[in-house]
Design a protein that fits this description.
Blueprint: H1 11-19, H2 24-27, E1 32-37, H3 43-47, E2 53-57, E3 77-80, H4 84-97, E4 107-111, H5 113-131, H6 142-160, E5 165-176, H7 181-184, E6 194-198, H8 202-211, E7 214-222, E8 229-234, E9 243-244, E10 252-254, H9 258-280
Parallel strand pairs: 1-5, 1-7, 2-3, 2-4, 4-5
Antiparallel strand pairs: 5-6, 7-8, 7-9, 8-10
Amino acid sequence: MSVATLHMPDIEELKEAMKKAQSPTETVQYLELVLFGKPKSGKTHFCGTLPRPLILDFDGGAAILGNKQKFPNFDGKVVRVESWKDVESWYWLLHSFNDRKGMGFKTVVWDTVTYAHYLAMDETKIEKVSRDPSKSRWQSEMSDYGKANDRVKFWVNQYKNLPLHKVWVCHEREDEAPVGWDEAVDEDDDELASWAVPDLPQGVRGFVMGLANLIGHQMRGRSKKTGKVVYLMAFDRPRSAASDRFGVMPKHIIDPTFEKLWSYYGKMTEEVNEDASSDGE
């Protein structure tokens, strides 16, 4: 195809395109975390430490944040998501009106993406029945899964582009080890054939995990020394999808908070700043 036949954008379109060129510092200034774990493992506890969060509560688990004894400094808001319209409306509120009084959110949380997918699936089937009453809301078809997956991926990606910290909370499930694991690692332990992963359909799981810089595996246990309940967020753990894209996190953080996590993640931002300064000399 000749270049002459292509449409050249006008000057205003080119100016908008130029705004998308960012320094490395700008691209990592916000936390982008997938956090997965079993129920009652402390996922929502961690979310209660995030700076000024807007929590989209899909499964009712965020009510614990109303406990002022446990979360005296919680300054965010919780939206009990009842339909996908709530997801769309709050995207536009954060996109266009976050500078208004009563807004000013610094973090957005999906709690949980697992239940968000259930909601998307249910609404997809309701829409199907409204178009064709002979269909059943209680019978899932392959096309329903594809449409629900696309809906979740589209809106996760929209939220990902907001200038905020993002946390995608998921429940945990076991799945097969990644393709090629047996060939890449000399390990005879049969238990390594199964991995702990976010509880999402495979296509959605890979998409959401690919958008995040950190994948934290949240766990709950008791201290051997004190007997008290402790929470642990792992970023490097056998048989787990836990991951750290930049290699700046420890293997795990005990009783994780945003401040503890940012003390490591923020160092990476500082290093980027130093590198950028050096390049300019």
